[in-house]
């Protein structure tokens, strides 16, 4: 199997509901998100997927959250914008597009969201 990973960053505000502690108050993070793809076959150029194409898929998903209060945006008006839920959100948004683009040749293996340099969550299926 082959894997390809691309990293992107965004800066946003959030707060945690049903949480007791400083993170129940609005605050911000310089988030980092890593999307890793996997697949068994390469294209004619010997690529699982061009990094450029993965960045192109990730960009609008990231830009939607950048410099926003994440709690105000669907689906985070209902579910908490924890690193775990953000990782799942990025997984689902990118996987749907990539499966379509590559006719199933490439899928998202996992997605990792860093809130700080030392705290991160990963989602995979
Ligand atoms: N499992 C999770 N735990 C926490 C999350 C989360 O998304 N998943 N989020 C938070 C808060 O958003 C908080 O901003 C980040 O917490 P923390 O790593 O504690 O951040 P600090 O930089 O303040 O770390 P210190 O070590 O306390 O300085 C909380 N938990
Ligand atoms: Zn936080």
TrEMBL record:
Instruction: Give the enzyme's EC designation.
Output: 4.-.-.-
One Pfam match, by short name?
Answer: PTPS
Obligatory cofactor(s)? Zn(2+)
What keywords are assigned to this protein? Lyase, Metal-binding, Queuosine biosynthesis, Zinc
How cofactor binds (record note)?
A: Binds 1 zinc ion per subunit.
Active-site positions on this chain: 23 (proton acceptor), 67 (charge relay system), 115 (charge relay system)
Q: In which pathway does it act?
A: Purine metabolism; 7-cyano-7-deazaguanine biosynthesis
Keyword Calcium applies = no
Task: Please write the reaction equations for the catalytic activity of this protein.
Answer: 7,8-dihydroneopterin 3'-triphosphate + H2O = 6-carboxy-5,6,7,8-tetrahydropterin + triphosphate + acetaldehyde + 2 H(+)
**In the UniProt record, does the keyword Nucleotidyltransferase occur?**
no
Q: Which family does it belong to?
A: Belongs to the PTPS family. QueD subfamily.
PANTHER family xref list: 6-CARBOXY-5,6,7,8-TETRAHYDROPTERIN SYNTHASE, PYRUVOYL TETRAHYDROBIOPTERIN SYNTHASE
Write down what this protein is called: 6-carboxy-5,6,7,8-tetrahydropterin synthase
* Provenance organism: Acidisarcina polymorpha
Q: What is the lineage of its organism?
A: Bacteria, Pseudomonadati, Acidobacteriota, Terriglobia, Terriglobales
